[in-house]
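Supplementary Note 3. Input sequence used for the single-chain structure prediction.
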Amino acid sequence: MVKWMRAAGAALLALGLALAAPRAADAALVEVTFNASGLWELEPGTVPPPTPPFGTDPNPVLTGTALLDNARSGEDALLAFSMVTGGKTWSLASGLLFFSVEFAGDGSVRDLFIGLGGADGFLILGGEAGSRIGATLSLAQMAGGVGQGMVTLSCNDCLLIESRVLPVPTPAALALFGMGLIGLGAARRLVRRAA
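The predicted structure, written as discrete structure tokens, is reproduced below.
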């Protein structure tokens, strides 16, 4: 009888853990990473000599991250953003110009476009996740005073956007796990009484 109770307790625990395990389909948070490297083009404003925006290297390797909520839509889905380009750190505090995201059926990112900045400069990135083809990153900064033009550093087909769905257990799964723990405690108590 004791062996049977232990086996039943172990089975209940395994079932509870399996049901409460985080699943990608239940997740709402998506971590996105950006990696830009390749052939960059520098388009100067009217003020020579041109230097890349924000002190960025003329041929940089740039990385960044974003945190999205696939249960939300529009700009509300973008929870956090971070990318350093030379002396400029981009975040949501830089000012969101535009944002568009399309999620795949598994909750990951299919297409993503983000524009940040303001009058002195901006960062635009976008494209299809998992492919550098068609993915673009552009940096722009005023080249001196008003009317002096912009200095732009951009690359086409150089931005890799990857996403990872962060597993989040559902409330129902957590409740089932809790019931499994209660059942395990009750089974243990019965075993102790029987002994």
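The chain has a mean pLDDT of 80. The chain has two helices and eleven strands.
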